[in-house]
Amino acid sequence: MAPCWEAFSQRWLGAREPFEPFSNRSLTKYKLVIDEALGWDGFQDVLQTVRGIADKHGVTLGAIGIAWVLAQPNVAAAIVGARDASHLQETLAATRIRLDEGDLAVLDGLSGRGLAGDVYELERDRDGPHGRIMKYNLNRP
């Protein structure tokens, strides 16, 4: 499974490990994935590696994540979520990046450090850590 590129942000590079309660369920989910896949120190190593590639291209960590997704075979688009318009320039910069073979090799290697299995399958286990944070049957009257 690919890493949570959306969690890649300068905000987390060098930051102390956060603890619950988090301000939203997405942060809870990202932290759970980080803990299971890498641990906080491993996540910091990944961010530092991506930072090096971002510096080389003069862009943000998030832009490198988007560019990596777009560089994958058979990928025509990336779904990018943004809290507000301030993320627009970062998103547009990602479309101009041309990752070289060395960049892709490094990023492909990082992608292998994700969770073992499909996160959606993990969410179906209602007794597991991923399933326990899910809200089920939201459409019930």
In short:
It contains seven helices and no strands.
Polypeptide structure, described:
With 141 residues, the protein is an all-alpha fold. The protein has one domain: NADP-dependent oxidoreductase domain (TIM Barrel, Alpha-Beta Barrel). 50% of the residues lie in helices and 0% in strands. The chain contains seven helices and no strands. The chain has helices at residues 25-37, 39-57, 61-70, 88-94, 101-111, 119-124, 129-132. Helix 1 crosses helix 2 and helix 2 packs across helix 3. The longest helix has 19 residues, at 39-57. The radius of gyration is 16 Å and the shape is globular. The protein starts with 24 loop residues before the first helix and ends in a 9-residue tail after the last helix. Residues 1-6 have low confidence and may be disordered.
Whole-Å distance between the termini? 35 Å
Instruction: Briefly note the CATH topology name.
Output: TIM Barrel
CATH class membership: Alpha Beta
Radius of gyration: 16 Å
Give the topology string: H per helix, E per strand: HHHHHHH
Q: Which CATH architecture is right?
A: Alpha-Beta Barrel
Instruction: Give a count of the beta strands, DSSP E runs of length 2 or more.
Output: 0
As a percent range, the share of strand residues is: under 5%
State the domain count.
1
Low-confidence residue ranges: 1-6
Percent range of helical residues? 40-55%
